[in-house]
Design goal:
By secondary structure, this protein is of the alpha+beta class. It contains ten helices and 24 strands. The strands form three sheets. It has a 19-stranded mixed β-sheet that branches. It has a three-stranded mixed β-sheet with strand order 21-24-23, with helices on one face. Strand 16 (271-275) and strand 17 (278-282) form a beta hairpin. Helix 2 (21-33) packs across helix 6 and helix 4 packs antiparallel against helix 6. It starts with 7 loop residues before the first helix and ends with a strand.
Length: 381
């Protein structure tokens, strides 16, 4: 197994004491190669995805159950084929022990300090569809809706896919809302094959399938679009009073309320950006900004603004307060933006890095020191 490669459902089955021998072999091969931070992030993501339903007494009971099951599975079933497999190497046993330590350490930390568990974001979202709200995360491939010619399924990697075959107009035109919280991201394949990836704290509204002469969606926050080509049916994105029209292309759009402007950055193809009666056509590696009765076009390195879709923060001459604002959304922490110095930053950071590592790298790049106080990033005086 390649390093860092794991199917989340294997971990879930292990915790539920449902793993068979083959699954345990695959899982422990991962444990042997993984470092402590990887294991902690994996477990913490499971905790984080269930944060809305967090219950102190219930979690303590579950903690006790998991402890008993793991202890029995790993150390007491002396004649079990599973146990023989687990004990094939000392490294595997050490890794298993590390898993238990990490699990209980993180759960106890969550119980005692619920406001101080800071981990990188992960693939989590909420889908509002057919009058219901469904929480989405990583896990096994699952069909969550199949009716009237519509199939909606989730993939293990954190993607939701819409497919429509002979769906009636009423069902096809029904609106859906995919929403990511702070500390979340999610990807959706729309009915026409277009792919949209939502960044943290964002929302996408779209029909179940596209009918008529255009394909129209609306977005809040930040999203990356890879639009399926269809010259006969333009793709339109409504965002904060602006409109983006494309036929088939890749671009990034960002419009958080606190940013006070909307930006669209083109990677390939072309897009038409309209705002308040004004219009501009973008070419690759151009960015348009709209806000406060202005429409500005400039040349940029478009890949910088799509780096987040590849698991990286890439800041190229970006103000420090903007950098901190993005970190706040991704790590689900508050930031004292008013106290941030007026300094631009050049840095590349993994979105899976521990927050302490991120702040240390920023400190090295800026000469300023930062610390976390009560779930808030502050500038040290």
């Amino acid at each position: 197994m390649e390093k860092n490669s794991i199917k989340p459902e294997l971990f879930e089955r292990f915790i539920a004491n449902e793993s068979n021998a083959a699954e345990l072999n695959q899982l422990f091969q991962y444990f042997e190669a993984a470092d402590e931070l990887e294991l902690k992030n994996l477990i913490a993501a499971e905790i984080k995805s269930g944060a809305e339903d967090f219950d102190l007494l219930g979690s303590q009971k579950r903690l006790d159950e998991v402890h008993a099951k793991l202890t029995e599975l790993l150390f007491e079933k002396k004649r079990s084929k599973v146990l023989t497999l687990v004990r094939t190497g000392s490294l595997l046993k050490i890794a298993a022990s590390l898993l238990i330590i990490s699990l209980f350490g993180l759960l106890a930390y969550r119980l005692l300090n619920p406001d101080h568990l800071i981990i990188p974001g992960t693939a989590i979202a909420t889908l509002s569809f057919d009058g219901k709200k469904t929480r989405l995360g990583v896990g096994r491939d699952t069909t969550i809706y199949q009716k009237k010619g519509i199939q909606v399924s989730t993939k293990a990697d954190g993607t939701i896919v819409y497919m429509a075959v002979n769906a009636d107009s009423a069902t096809a035109s029904r609106l859906n809302t995919l929403e990511t919280p702070k500390g979340g991201e999610y990807k959706v394949t729309l009915g026409d094959g277009s792919i949209v990836m939502l960044n943290a704290g964002s929302k996408l509204t779209f029909p179940t399938d596209f009918r008529g002469t255009e394909r129209k969606v609306s977005v809040e926050g930040e999203a990356f679009f890879k639009v399926a080509k269809n010259a006969a049916k333009p793709f339109i994105v409504a965002v904060a009073g602006s409109e983006i029209k494309v036929l088939g292309t890749q671009f990034n759009v960002s419009s958080y309320p606190e940013d006070r402007e909307t930006t669209a950055t083109l990677l390939e193809g072309s897009i038409q950006f309209s705002n308040a009666g004004r219009e501009v056509i973008l070419k690759p590696n151009q960015q348009v900004s709209a806000g406060y009765s202005k429409l500005e076009l400039r040349n940029v390195s478009a890949d910088d603004f799509a780096a987040w879709t590849k698991g990286e923060f890439l800041f190229n001459d970006v103000p420090l307060n903007v950098v901190m604002q993005k970190l706040g959304r991704w790590y689900k922490v508050e930031v004292d933006l008013a106290a941030m110095p007026q300094k631009n930053l050049y840095i590349k950071i993994s979105r899976k890095a521990d927050i302490d590592e991120v702040l240390e790298n920023i400190s090295k790049a800026t000469g300023y020191q930062f610390e976390i106080e009560s779930n808030k990033i502050v500038l040290e005086k």
